[in-house]
Amino acid sequence: TTALGTLLRCFPCERLCGGCTVPPAPPHPPRALPPAMPPSRRRLPPAARLPPRTFHSYLPHSHRTYSCVHCRAHLARHEELISKSFQGSHGRAYLFNSVVNVGCGPAEQRLLLTGLHSVADIFCQSCKTTLGWKYEQAFESSQKYKEGKFIIEMSHMVKENGWD
C-alpha cells in the first residue's frame, strides 16, 4: 500500500466501519455522560472571552474606586483619598492613604514644591505605567503627614463603580 492510501484509511469515518488497522475507541457505557470538555474548549459568552484581568488585588464592586486608565487595574478606594489638591509631575494629582496593584521603584531625594522629600516612583503592576510616587520621608516637620502616602496623577486614573 502507498503512504497516501494508509493516510486515507486512518480517517475517523474509516475507524467506525472497521477499515482501519487502528482499533476503534471503546464506546461509552450506556447512560454515561460524555467526558467533560477541557476549559479551553468550552463555549463562553463574548464578554468572558476577553483576556483575564490578572491583578494582585481586586477592590469590591460596591465601592467607588479609582483604576488605571490604561489597563483598568484597581488602584484605590475613594475612602482612601486624602486630598485632591496636589500637583504631580504632569498635572493635578490626588493623595491617597493606601493603594493596590502598584509597584515601587527606588527612593530618591527630590526638591518638590513643598520642600525636599525622599520619594519612590510608583507604577501600575499590570501595564507598568508610571502613576506618581510614594512619599518615603519628608525633611520638613510640616510635611511629615505625607510619609507613607501615595500621589497618583489624575491623567492616569479613571473613576469606576457607583459614581453619580
General description of the model:
The chain has 164 residues and is mainly beta. Helices cover 8% and strands 37% of the residues. It has helices spanning 3-9, 12-17, and strands at residues 65-68, 74-77, 81-88, 91-96, 102-112, 115-124, 130-138, 150-153, 157-160. The strands form two sheets. It has a six-stranded antiparallel beta sheet, with no helix packed on it. Strands 2-1-9 form a three-stranded antiparallel beta sheet, with no helix packed on it. It has a domain at 65-160: Metal Binding Protein, Guanine Nucleotide Exchange Factor, Chain A. GO terms for molecular function: metal ion binding. This is Protein yippee-like.
Secondary structure topology:
Blueprint: H1 3-9, H2 12-17, E1 65-68, E2 74-77, E3 81-88, E4 91-96, E5 102-112, E6 115-124, E7 130-138, E8 150-153, E9 157-160
Antiparallel strand pairs: 1-2, 1-9, 3-4, 4-8, 5-6, 6-7, 7-8
List keywords for this structure.
164 residues; mainly beta; Metal Binding Protein, Guanine Nucleotide Exchange Factor, Chain A; six-stranded antiparallel β-sheet; three-stranded antiparallel β-sheet; 2 helices; 37% strand; globular
Radius of gyration: 29 Å
Helices, by number, come to 2
Largest sheet: 6 strands, antiparallel
Shape designation: globular
Stated plainly, the CATH topology of the domain at 65-160 is called Metal Binding Protein, Guanine Nucleotide Exchange Factor, Chain A
Regions with pLDDT < 50 over 5+ consecutive residues?
A: 10-17, 19-24, 47-55
In percent terms, what proportion of residues is strand?
Answer: 35-45%
The CATH homologous superfamily of the domain at 65-160 corresponds to Peptide methionine sulfoxide reductase
Order of secondary-structure elements:
HHEEEEEEEEE
The first-level CATH class name of the domain at 65-160: Mainly Beta
Organism: Pelecanoides urinatrix (Common diving petrel)
Protein name: Protein yippee-like
GO molecular function, one term: metal ion binding
Keywords: Metal-binding, Zinc
